[in-house]
Structure formats: C-alpha cells, structure tokens
Amino acid sequence: MKKETLVSVNDFKLYAKLMGEKNGKPTVVMDAGYGDYSKAWDPVIGELSGITEVLIYDRAGLGASEKSPNPRTSREMVKELKELLCSLNIKPPYILVGHSFGGVNVSVYAHEYPEEVAGLVLVDSTPVGYRERFLPTMPSDFQEAYRKQFVREGNYQEFMESLGQLKEYKKTLSMPVIVLSAGKKDHYSEASQELWNDMQREMALSSSKGEFVLAKNSAHYIQRDEPLVVIKAVEKLMELVHSDEKFETSSTVNT
What pLDDT, on a 0 to 100 scale, did the predictor assign at position 249? Predict the structure, then answer.
C-alpha cells in the first residue's frame, strides 16, 4: 500500500506518505534532520515498508508541507506530529526513527507520550550539549558556518531552545533506544570524532535499554552511506517488541 496525502493540522497542511502494511507490528514513523524533508529516507524506505507500515512526512514549511504559525521548536513539532498521526488514524505503538534534529524531536515525543512509543532509533542525532561541549572545540569557520545555516526552518535560537527542551526531561526512558553514530564525519579531526562518538554513547544512557552502534564508514547521513545499519536497527526493535526480550545497556561496534 502507498498513500500520499496533505493532512490538515490546525490551520495548515502537512504532507505525509504512508507505505507498507502494518501486519500487527508497530508503525515506523520517520523524522528528518533540520531543514530536511521526507526524501531523506529514500535509501531505506523501500526495505522498511516491506517489513511494516512506514510513515514519512514533511515538517511544516518544508517539502510539500505548508508553513505553521507555531514556533519552530521540538515541542511544537511534536504536537503537530501527534495531530498528524491522529488525523491519519495511525494507532500506536510506534517505532520512531529520527535523523539529526529529527532525533531530538522523536526523543521529545518519547518523553511526552511514552505509552505510545515501542522504541527509538536515533540516527546521528544532535546531542543536547552540542553548543556547550562540542561546538567550541571546532574551528571558528566551522562554528560560523554552523550558525549561519539556520534559515530554512526556525532560527538558531529556536533550535537551541529545542535542545534545552529535551534536556529538561530527567526521567530515564523505559523503551529500547538504539543510537547510531556516524564514525566518519566530514571536517572532523580525530579528537572531534572521538568527542562526537562519546556524546552519542551518552545518548544511549537516556534509556534503561539503550544501545550504541558505531557506523564507522558513514558521514552524517547514515541512511545514505550505510542504509543497512538503519534497517537492522529497526528490525532489532521489531524483534524486541515481539519477544519482549530484555537487553542491558551495551556498546556495539558495526563492522
């Protein structure tokens, strides 16, 4: 099954594409990175939609979606996603997959609606301490280019506010979380890459069932560079949901 539609959410419309059949499994909901849209998932959508129902969508103001009057922060985007899912009558549980800033959004969703989320896959997600811990270690031209990119979807302050919103949650998540870290980041020194990986490992501690996976041949877009890593992570969560298997916080290196 494949369905493309524009869905009214309050006073604007969001583009959504639904693919695959549910078959009694959780629906996979995918959220792209900052300024990015549903096409970012093209390398994995075909295979994932052969496993279960998959929803990809464009956040407000991106791709085929209309602009939203709401602030461009994670909590507002999560409310809009929640309304989208309700309007499409897509029932939980969900496996949420977020890339980069999308990882912040799906993490906020998991904290706000934990009873709806069966698991999370964070694809080289933005760490909450990015501005304080990571950005200052990078060359000044990198820092300047980073700040100047925030013109497509909300501004720099809204983006940082989103990281602050995620940081406010103190409770550990109970659903499994698989953190995928890009091991071959563009323009990163060896020290920067190590710090990035460390901060990704820490992200796995947001759940009592957290796992870290290093995609050692990937730059930021793991779904493009090593799509199988993303697909396998979703498949693993599917197996965990069905077997209710318990797994301890661990560290795994992709080979």
Answer: 37
Find where tokens 């949420």 sit.
Answer: 96
Alpha carbons 139 and 145: distance in angstroms, whole number: 10
Domain containing 162 — which CATH number? 3.40.50.1820
Strands 27-31 vs 2-9: parallel, antiparallel or unpaired = unpaired
Which contiguous run of DSSP H or E holds residue 44? helix 42-48
What spatial distance separates the first Cα and last Cα of the chain, rounded to whole Å?
Answer: 34
Q: Give the whole-angstrom CA distance, residue 253 versus residue 17.
A: 33
C-alpha span between 183 and 109 (Å, rounded): 26
Q: How many domains does the chain have?
A: 1
Query: Distances from the Cα of 4 to the Cαs of 11, 25, 65, 250, in angstroms?
Result: 19, 21, 12, 38
Q: Count of H helices and E strands in the chain?
A: 8, 9
CB atoms within 10 A of CB 237: 25
Distances (CA, A) of 128 to 2, 205, 221: 35, 13, 19
pLDDT for res 238 = 95
Domain that holds residue 11: 2-253
How many C-beta neighbours within 10 Å does residue 216 have?
Answer: 15
How many of the other CB atoms lie within 10 Å of CB of 16? 25
For the chain (255 residues), the mean pLDDT of every run of 10, in chain order, is 90 97 95 97 97 98 97 98 97 98 98 98 97 95 95 95 97 97 94 97 96 97 98 96 54 44
Across 147-164, b (16+ Cβ under 10 Å) vs e yields eeebeebbeeeebbbbbe
The pLDDT, as a whole number, for residue 251 is: 43
pTM over 0.85: yes
